[in-house]
Write a structure and sequence with these properties.
binds guanosine-5'-triphosphate, about 375 residues, globular, 15 helices, binds magnesium ion, alpha/beta, eight-stranded mixed β-sheet
Length: about 375
């Protein structure tokens, strides 16, 4: 998984290297500003981050906490609903809706869920064909109709069919462009209304697809969609092909919406759940050396084998590792820091200053 998040930042990291070829443990604020701009974080947000950093030279940990704060709206809890769970996929044309549906289907299938597709982009015949090809490739049922047919009728039929077949998950494609913006707005609203008629509460999640290569200019577009139907979460696609990875921060911050998945390629497996810790870490790795962290606050200093053992012990205690620095308590979904206390040769799960759990290195080895 970590590899995929890294892949999403490959070009961004290269861009950062052009302004900061050498990694350091502390970066002067003015240089840091240039680095964040190069990564395509929006200037307004950089200003906010800079204002909250009081030191002239900024450490990895200081920047980490600020970047994580901008992503603090990114947690999402899937509502428990009666089957099928209905996802509605919206976004401008070319953003990557249909491709993301293929990838989402693969992801849900891999997690043991059955999936059915609804081809509600009836504006173009090619759109129906494209989704049909994905359905064939992934061997999943699809409900479609002719070009020009009422898209909400297709959505209705898809949900009815999924109910009859006892399918877990319905994913509905939509058009990204119609003759006018008003047409598109009315059509999306109608699809939402009709989904609810077919299955009360549906669509349970409206996911907006944003083209990552557009960087911050996707923000205005996202606001427009959010005004039409209340968006529940975002998928940012094509992050493999852009140096604008930093726009993920501005998008999340501006919209106050969770980023659910990111797309890092055109194949079925090229979609991963967004993990803010890994994403921030990937960016920090491009800027900072890790010596400082090794000495006092992360698990970098241990071998993979020891780390795996530690994660197993933590898991037995109900903590899941999110990254090298954070764990989540499974029962409550609360997130805590995990730090290596090298003076005492132990790992500590900490809630602010309170130690919740200690793992002695000698017990792990
Ligand atoms: N590199 C890369 N390409 C992607 C990604 N997601 C989508 N694409 C490509 O982007 C192009 C447009 O994707 P579609 O899925 O057809 O976009 P759409 O939103 O359904 O477009 P319309 O149906 O025209 O509204 C295709 O060539 C995809 O292969 C991604 O994460 N990475
Ligand atoms: Mg499409």
């Amino acid at each position: 998984m970590f590899g995929f998040i890294k892949k999403s930042l490959t070009k961004t990291v290269k861009a950062i290297e052009t302004v900061a070829p050498k990694k350091r443990s502390k970066i002067p604020k003015d240089e840091l500003e240039d680095i964040l701009l190069e990564a395509d974080i929006e200037y307004d947000l950089i200003e906010i981050i800079m204002r909250e950093l009081y030191q002239d030279e900024v450490t990895r940990e200081q920047l980490e906490s600020k970047l994580l704060t901008t992503l603090s709206y990114t947690t999402y809890e899937k509502p428990q609903v009666e089957k099928p769970f209905v996802d509605l996929i919206i976004g401008v044309n070319g953003a990557g809706k249909t491709t993301s549906i293929g990838k989402l289907s693969h992801y849900f299938k891999s997690n043991g869920e059955s999936v059915l597709l609804g081809a509600s982009d009836t504006f173009r015949a090619a759109a129906i064909e494209q989704l049909t090809r994905w359905a064939e490739k992934l061997d999943i049922p699809i409900v479609s109709s002719r070009q020009g047919h009422d898209p909400s009728a297709v959505a209705y039929d898809a949900i009815e069919s999924a109910k009859a077949k006892n399918i877990d998950h319905v994913i509905i494609d939509t058009a990204g462009r119609l003759h006018t913006q008003t047409n598109l707005s009315n059509e999306l609203k109608k699809i939402v209304r009709i989904c609810d008629k077919a299955h009360s509460g549906a669509p349970h999640r409206k996911m907006l697809i944003l083209d990552g290569t557009q960087g911050n200019s996707a923000i205005a577009q996202a606001k427009a969609f959010n005004d039409i139907v209340d968006v529940d979460g975002i998928i940012i696609t094509k992050l493999d092909g852009t140096a604008k990875g930093g726009s993920v921060f501005s998008i999340a911050y501006a919209l106050k919406l969770p980023i659910l998945f990111i797309g890092v390629g055109e194949n079925e497996a090229d979609l991963v759940p967004f993990n803010k810790y890994e994403f921030v870490e990937g960016l920090l790795d491009a800027i900072y050396t890790i010596e400082e962290v090794v000495e006092n606050s992360s698990l970098d200093s241990i071998t993979q084998e020891v780390r795996n053992k530690l994660y197993r012990l933590m898991s037995d205690d109900g903590f899941d590792a999110l990254s090298k620095h954070f764990v989540r308590e499974r029962a409550t979904w609360k997130e805590f820091k995990i730090i290596a206390n090298n003076n005492l040769n132990q790992f500590e799960i900490k809630d602010q200053d309170t130690i919740l759990k200690i793992y002695k290195l000698e017990d792990i080895k």
